[in-house]
Amino acid sequence: MQARKICMLGAFAVGKTSLVSRFVRGIYSEKYLSTIGIKIDRKPVDLGRSAVELILWDLAGEDDFVSVQTRYLRGSAGYLLVADGTRPDTLETALILRRRVVAELGELPFVLVLNKADLTDRWQLGRHDEQNYLGLRDLALGTLLTSAKTGDAVEAAFNLLARETTA
Amino acid sequence: MDEHDPRPETPDTAQPDLPVAAETLDELRQLLVGPERQELDRLKQQLAANPHQAAQVAELLPRAVTLRTEQDDQLARALAPTVESAIQTSVRDNPQPMIDAVFPIIGPAIRKAVADAFATAVQSLNQTLEHSFSVRSLRWRIEAARTGKPFAEVVLLHTLRYRVEQVLLIQPESGLLMQQVAAPGVQLRDGQLVSGMLTAITEFVRDSFAPRSAEDAGDPPASARPPDSDPGHLRTLQVGGVTLWIEPGPHAVLVAAVRGSAPVELRQLFQRALEDLHRQHAPALTAFAGDADGLSATQPELERCLVSAAQPGTKRKVSPPLILGGLLLLAVFFTAVFWAARANLRWSNYLSDLKTAPGIMLVEADHRWLGRSSVRGLYDPAVATDPHLYLEHSSIDPAGVRQRWEPYPTASAPVFTLPEPAPAPTIEPATPVPAVPEAEASPSPPAPTAQEQAEARLETLAGRIAEAVVRMPRGNILELDGQREIYDDLVRDLAAARDLSGQLGNQLVLVVTGHTDAVGDPDTNLELSEARAAAVADDLQSRLTPPIRFILRGVGSAEPIVGIDASRAAQIQNRRVTFRVELRPLDE
User: Fold this and answer.
1) Is B554 helix (H, G, I), strand (E, B) or coil?
2) What does pTM read for this prediction?
3) Interface pTM, i.e. ipTM
4) Which chain A residues have a beta carbon less than 8 Å from that of B223?
5) pLDDT, averaged across chain B
């Protein structure tokens, strides 16, 4: 089976690990554990005519103190750019991260994921169809409002990237 | 050729007279290269004629093939696809010739494979046996039980100096697993995760500890440099007994998991393997984009790295004397147990016989494994068989038992003091012995006459003689062991009785009666009983001077003292000889 390296990129505590956990193991935990360094998981994805194994590199989130080491991104077939819909500043971080990826590795396919869609009362990124999310929407393969908690659109986000990277 | 070659017509010679010069030149050519031209024409003709050419190639081909094969393997490589496809086509179209060709070798091949499998099994059995009888193997078994590993693996871990258990080929940048192989019996973990994590760790270590000066000075980033010269690359990782040896290459990183302490030279093997991989599979390595199947051709190269080395001297076998000693010890132990059980059984049977025997009272019994056992008791000489006989028939070594048998005090008293009531008619009424007056005299015993005293004495002796029993447990052989005292008393009493009867004017006649037990044929028993009486009479006669008269009787088993319902040992008491005294006139 073909294997593809996929990275999870995003600000601190946007739910990257929860998305991976929901996607790979189908579970969600309320408990928050900050990722230190890297966690690697794998998940075979059936794309109908073909199958691919995603090797998911879950990188520690970016914040004021920790900056994502782009060298871990090398060899990636694509990445999930994750932001937290309840924290607009995480979208800005996502933008910065994307610029850094382009500077280091060039253009790579990515899916913009706006997580925590279940928290509708605290949602601050406006309505989905009106926003272009700092221009990221146009650059991404797709933009999805996901919830690691309910599982909404999580599989769709990963599958979109998987399909693109094996095309 | 001459038309096209302008060079010979140099300007110096061509200018004065062109036709002459051309003619001369032609002649010169003819002279110089005439034969070669002819040969060339001939070759041209040959080439033009196709059948002829094929024949020549056929002639040259074998030699050419041989020459090229000696040079390098290019020809084999070139031919391989053709041969493969030819074989495939042949098998597809008509498999029979191939079957016929393979048939003679397939049998031996299977036999060899089976023999190999057996040899492997025997080898592993040998190894197991080798490690079965030692303290060390016991320790390993405990370790196996503790750690949950199979015993064979524990043995392997301890007897191998090192073993390359796994080899992974990883794409340096993405950390994707390109290929992996494992030694037999080693369980492959999730190679993708391992290789990913390993790559991440390598990157992390490089980030944290590698000297950064090169990068700061504007050198190309690490990924762009050949990793061989990358001083920041992690080369070794140690986890428990396993060391990960990491060999970086431009397009692939080779990681070998080595258990034990491998020599440094092993790294050269990995380096060479990696170099060969890069040389032979460079396009596949470069083009790798996550599809491991495209690199399956690298497997043999990686398997070459799965080497191992045994520890010197670990094949120490358990010495045969040690095994022999162990077996001997076991044999001694079981023999001892057997003997002890048998001795115990015999002893308890012996005691049980003693306890059930009439007239014997066992007072004390002490059975000892070491030293002499002892029994002590009382017996009634009137009723009981000699207690010593029980020991003889018990299969217990008599020398190992100290016996102390004493006659009942109460039983022996009447023998000596009271006249025997049963054999009262021993003194025949025909004789003038006044037996009755004794009773009259006893209330007033002022002065018994000498004759009266002699008569009383004779009566007592007759009673004692009638009490006497000579045991004859085996046939008609008189054995006095164990009954010598009784026998000597009998002889003494007989002598005294003979003398007294003489004094009283009578002659003593001894009726000797032989007895047998109820076992066996009655006629034979009757004969045996007579023989017993005769044997005893003979012996007594030899001891008595002057002699006495005997009357011999054999009654077989008609007069038993122990019933047939008693034990076999007890019934032996019936094998005996008894006596009765008769007084007859001297002239009879």
Assistant:
1) strand
2) 0.44
3) 0.82
4) 71, 74
5) 79
